Amino acid sequence: MNRTKRILIYVFLLIFITFSSHFIYNFVTLYFESQRLKDRLNGLSEVMHNLNAIIISSESIDTTAFLQGKESFPSLVQKNVKGHPLYSWRFTEFLTLPVPLPHKLPWTADEYGWVRETAPLPFCYGGNTKTVVFAVGGPDTAFDQINPTPAKSLPQNLILFADVYESNTHWMQPGDFSIENIPEKVNVPGGFGSSLYRGFNVVFVDGQIWHLQDDVPLNLLIRFCTITDAKKTSRDLLEPYCDFKQQLNRKEFLWLDWDTWALPNNELENE
């Protein structure tokens, strides 16, 4: 075999190995990305169901009045009798579990030491104690405590929770999106986005989880974060940027009159 043929064979093999490696890398990347996304969808489902538990166990909410449409969602931050912040709604959800822990201490208290080392799946990923989910708070949102709106009166298009990119916030620590200063770009620290997969999830009042692409216009998405704009904005506007949707069982959420709520015209996909 002459030298030219050997070189051609080597070049061919190099190209083949390069393309094969690229294909395998992409396949493995997509596989693990899909697994992380599946885990996060399960986590967000737990977040929504645990919100029920907060409503039932909250000392500040009359459950009967809530079911009658007279009560708003609880505060995102648990406070003591003096109004000082103690811990986040995420830890409030955790405390609805049968764990022998006090409920009236700041999240940095020694009594919570072992809990601070954990990374519960609904709020964290991969053993990292920084939260990957924020609620949307601030004026005219579902969690507005200054001018509260009864939970049963909230528009179904309103976003409650979303993936957050590099929150730099311990899951027990108070901290969420504020409608007044949400970053204007996706995938910047403290903004909408995810470092676990392409795109990010948002969770609506009606129990739908939408996985949106990173190129969704933020000025459009923000319209689904306030009550006023969500009432007059069609969710169909987000369709071009939505990869898939998942509908949680609306019968299981205390704030939904599920028997009178019609599904949107678009077909829901569960993946």
From TrEMBL:
It comes from the Bacteria. The keyword Transmembrane helix applies. Keywords: Membrane, Transmembrane, Transmembrane helix. The chain crosses the membrane at residues 7-32. This is DUF1559 domain-containing protein.
